[in-house]
Design brief:
The chain is of the alpha/beta class and 447 residues long. It has three domains: 202 residues, FAD/NAD(P)-binding domain (3-Layer(bba) Sandwich); 111 residues, FAD/NAD(P)-binding domain; 99 residues, 2-Layer Sandwich (Enolase-like, domain 1). 32% of the residues lie in helices and 23% in strands. The chain has 13 helices and 22 strands. Strand 5 and strand 6 form a beta hairpin. The protein is globular, with a radius of gyration of 24 Å. It binds flavin-adenine dinucleotide and nicotinamide-adenine-dinucleotide.
């Protein structure tokens, strides 16, 4: 049968763009449909604008610390519209680059919503029907908004990048990645931040000691935490402020409520049920190791499969899909030892097993820690300690996990992750001469 395209990709985000571009480079006739902006969550309302806000926020501490280093810093004001508009302009620039790359590879970019209407058929928002030998679903995920009276007065991370003015009092629901990153951002911009979580665990999945250090430092900075609290009701008052009622604590008054309680796959109304694509109980597309769904001609990559919701993972899945299907190079993503980071203030990062996971899985382990006050913090009079932890298999001496919190932790961890992935031993770390004076030298000095 003749199809309009060899490949039709739905969603031009991290996974979809990579899959479309590489498949086209292998000679496939490819189209990609995008209902919002090319680049997807990471570029438009995720990693990129978030990291730029983190940089912007960090100046609050840098400017204060500079005085201890002899700089005569006058009283500085922060102007939110300047940062917001510069960040949004940068996002537009990157969006342009992504679109250009796709077009240069002869990928047809269709700026509309698309839904699946057959195993080889896609229906566009304007009513056009197109056919493709293979369909790749790369529609990502969307923020979860809990259901309770007044929840409509809250925003999600999608809107946080567009705020008219900076709120003075912010309540953030959740205690995961987005909650902790935005807690740091709003706090550094001068807002009073309260994090509300239904349990007393922040950043589940990260090493407990590292998480505890972030909690301690955040509280020291003045970020408040309300644990074991569930939202009951939010009222909007005449002056526009919010009265937020929760279980287990007094109501909180705030100017902004932001939900950061997870992201669910974007499969609603996508037509997948009509063709028999199997979804799990979270609405994620169930795929095999080659990203193939329960329907032979339909594949899925990225957040919509709810495996690991990170951009580099979506990109790898998109690449593996293209290599396997159109490049004659069967490739599978290796999910072992994926490094990750939280761009909180200070940031934290980790790779491999946490101490708790290692005790359960490996049994006999050794742990090494470096708990130190970075040189810069000492001179700045900033009482913030960094903490590095290394987990070693006691039998093989292999380093099976590295976890850290402190300045530049994500930058340092990316390099350390190579060693963990390469299954290097603790003795091989010890053989490396320290690079002095750095924070990273602690990695080869742990005793
Ligand atoms: C605030 C925030 C910060 C983040 N920070 C980081 C970080 O620092 N590091 C990191 O690794 N990850 C981060 N992430 C996660 C990362 O953004 C995602 O894991 C990644 O974007 C997933 O890529 P994807 O291709 O699966 O989906 P997406 O990038 O979400 O792309 C999906 C695209 O599909 C489009 N679409 C959806 N439905 C349709 C349809 N029916 N028709 C046409 N188009 C459609 C959407 O508009 C979107 O553009 C962050 C996420 C958020 C929300
Ligand atoms: N630096 C990064 O790499 C980065 C940054 C941001 C987001 N992301 C990705 O995006 C995903 C989504 O981020 P997120 O922060 O929304 O999710 P998350 O899974 O990190 O955290 C969700 C939090 O919400 C809490 N929660 C869940 N349901 C709740 C409810 N009904 N009421 C109150 N609290 C509730 C959970 O206990 C948890 O603390 C992450 O899992 C991550 O993969 C990555």
């Amino acid at each position: 049968m003749n199809y309009d395209y060899d490949l039709f990709v739905i969603g031009a985000g991290s996974g979809g763009v990579r899959a479309a571009r590489v498949s086209a480079a292998y000679g496939a006739r490819v189209a990609v449909a995008e209902e919002h902006k090319v680049g997807g969550t990471c570029v438009i309302r995720g990693c990129v604008p978030k990291k730029l806000l983190v940089y912007g926020a960090h100046f609050a501490e840098d400017l204060a610390d500079a005085r201890r280093f002899g700089w005569n810093v006058p009283k500085c004001d922060f102007h939110w519209p300047t940062l917001r508009d510069n960040v949004l302009a940068e996002v537009e620039r990157i969006q342009g680059l992504y679109t250009e790359t796709l077009e240069r590879h002869s990928v047809e970019v269709i700026r509309q919503r698309a839904t699946v209407s057959g195993p080889n058929q896609v229906t566009l928002a304007d009513g056009r029907i197109v056919t493709a030998k293979t369909i790749l679903i790369a529609v990502g995920a969307t923020p979860v908004v809990p259901d309770f009276p007044g929840a409509e007065h809250g925003i999600t991370s999608n809107e946080a990048f567009h705020l008219e003015a900076l709120p003075k009092r912010v309540v953030i629901a959740g205690a995961g990645y987005i909650a902790n990153e935005f807690a740091g951002i709003f706090h550094q911009f001068g807002a009073h931040v309260t994090l509300v979580n239904r349990s007393d665990v922040i950043l589940r999945g990260y090493d407990e000691t590292i998480r505890d250090r972030l909690l301690t430092i955040s509280m020291m900075k003045g970020i408040e935490f309300r644990f074991h609290a569930a939202f009951e009701q939010v009222e909007k008052k005449e002056d526009g402020s919010l009265r937020i009622q929760m279980t287990n604590c007094e109501p909180v008054e705030a100017d902004l409520l932001m939900f950061a309680v997870g992201r669910r796959p974007n499969t609603d109304g996508l037509g997948l049920d009509s063709v028999g694509v199997t979804l799990d109980d979270q609405g994620a597309i169930v795929v095999d190791a080659d990203n193939r769904s329960s329907v032979d001609s339909i594949y899925a990559v990225g957040d919509v499969t709810n495996r690991v919701q990170l951009t580099p993972v979506a990109i790898r899945e998109g690449q593996a899909f293209a290599d396997t299907l159109f490049g004659n190079k069967p490739t599978r993503v290796d999910y072992e030892n994926i490094p990750s980071a939280v761009f909180s203030h200070p940031p934290m990062a980790g790779v491999g097993l946490t101490e708790g996971q290692a005790r359960n899985k490996v049994g006999s382990i050794k742990t090494y820690t470096a708990d130190f006050r970075p040189m810069k913090n000492v001179l700045a009079g900033r009482n913030e300690r960094a903490l590095y932890k290394m987990i070693v298999d006691a039998q093989t001496d292999e380093v099976i996990g590295i976890h850290m919190i402190g300045p530049d932790a994500p930058e340092i961890l990316q390099a350390a992750a190579i060693a963990v992935k390469a299954k290097l031993k603790k003795s091989q770390f010890d053989e490396v001469v320290a690079l002095h004076p750095t924070m990273a030298e602690e990695l080869v000095l742990m005793k």
